[in-house]
Amino acid sequence: MASTWFESVAEAQRRARKRLPKGVYGALVAGSERGLTVEDNLAAFAELGFAPHTAGLANERNTAVTVMGQSLSMPVLISPTGVQAVHPDGEVAVARAAAARGVAMGLSSFASKPIEEVVAANPQTFFQMYWVGTREEMLARMDRARRAGAVGMIATLDWSFAYGRDWGSPFIPEKIDFEAARRYAPQVLVKPRWLLDFARTGKIPDLTVPNMVANPGDPAPTFFGAYGMWMQSPMPTWEDVAWLREQWDGPFMLKGVMRVDDAKRAVDAGVTAISVSNHGGNNLDGTPASIRALPSVAAAVGDQVDVLLDGGIRRGGDVAKALALGAKAVMIGRAYLWGLGANGQAGVENVLDLLRDGLGSAMTGLGRADVSALSRDDLVIPEGFERRLGDVAVANALLGTSPARARSREA
Ligand SMILES: Cc1cc2nc3c(=O)[nH]c(=O)nc-3n(C[C@H](O)[C@H](O)[C@H](O)COP(=O)(O)O)c2cc1C
Q: What cofactor does this protein call for (predicted)?
């Protein structure tokens, strides 16, 4: 029998592709529109090189960090991802795997499992919220997360309802009825193992989002119902961000910050952490890779809040690169979803082990015994790699020009 262990995230992706129905797998790889951002998230990591030492390599590999008040075995967190019907145990399997490896869990408010079950599987769980519904409804959801024991809050606001992917819609049926069965049978029937996993548990893939209601067991909307509510909610202002932050007594992350000016506003709003992120390339296509924006954001606010990065992490070396450019930790999305699709909880543990080992190898070669010692000196950074977004006046000043001077030169 073939080994269930895989040696790279790329192999996890191949196995997930083999195992999952086309629509489910498609949702895991998709980026918005032309896919420029999702591609750049990977291309940018490939552009960064290492500057390894020959002797004096590190004997120790201390990867432990404290992020948002939580002691973690390594600088990696599970980024929240919405319901994907990848595996019947879904977020509970991911949370268990993360707990087994000393890693914190981010739970999406569009997840398929109730927060109470997820916190029971991993007490280091952060709850992620979108700006959906009224303030009262948001307070009720936060209150439930607090009662369940969430250790922190992640507010994700970088969503512009971008629509249309050049490679087709990765649609997943909302419920298994006759029409869905007719339409999806050709995809699903050729993936008997995926179907068998669900059949064994007696559950059918079901797209309700149980964390969108105030109490466990309250009738929950479907994913698409909740998405509709979200589309009708007015877009949040910076005052709303400050309000949301005030309602949570504990660590609070704003996820999806790409611009230096926004990072500063987030600090003013009182957040304790940000994630430099472009939503894994699922939001506004054409946004540069998050790793390109990281150095300027980390330089601007890294001494005031925990700066994390997500987008494009596929190996331990990528974690080392992000830390060297100023991140305290990274969050992963697709890498663990593919692990989950390939081999359930064990597949997610497998992915986390690969990241830890890869990070360890990078540390050894770079002569860094502790992750906190990684620095720009460890990297080969091609000219023009970085992108400073926002704060144009500062960027111009750094380049020795100012808009006024540029205008006068043009005149
Ligand atoms: C299938 C999928 C669903 C996602 N759902 C959410 C979500 O519900 N909330 C959220 O904050 N981010 C969501 N994200 C974004 C991830 O948290 C993360 O920012 C992104 O996946 C990181 O990029 P990576 O996949 O290259 O690691 C989702 C990403 C994917 C791929």
A: FMN
d(CA 232, CA 308): 30
DSSP letters, 286-327, are TPPPHHHHHHHHHHHHTTTSEEEEES---SHHHHHHHHHTT-
Atom in ligand 1 nearest the alpha carbon of residue 281: 23
Classify residue 400: in a domain, yes or no.
Answer: no
Is the CB of 13 inside a 6 Å radius of any atom of ligand 1? no
- 74 within domain boundaries: yes
**Is 100 within a domain?**
yes
Q: What is the DSSP string of 66-95?
A: EETTEEESSSEEEPP-----S-TTHHHHHH
**Structural domain for 213, as ranges:** 9-380
Q: What is the pTM of this model?
A: 0.92
Question: Per the domain annotation, does 393 fall within a domain?
Answer: no
Helix, coil or strand: residue 176? coil
Mutating to test ligand 1, I would choose from 115, 128, 279 the residue with most ligand atoms within 8 A of its C-beta, which is 279
Give percent of the chain with pLDDT exceeding 90: 77
Check residue 179 and give its pLDDT.
59
Paired sense of beta strands 105-107 and 76-78, if any: unpaired
Task: State whether the Cα torsion 175-180-186-187 is positive or negative.
Answer: negative
- Please, what is the end-to-end C-alpha distance for the chain in angstroms? 74
Using one digit for the tens of pLDDT, what is the confidence trace for 277-305? 999 999 999 999 999 999 999 999 999 99
80 touches 115 (CB < 8 A): no
Per the CB < 8 A criterion, the answer to whether 43 and 313 are in contact is: no
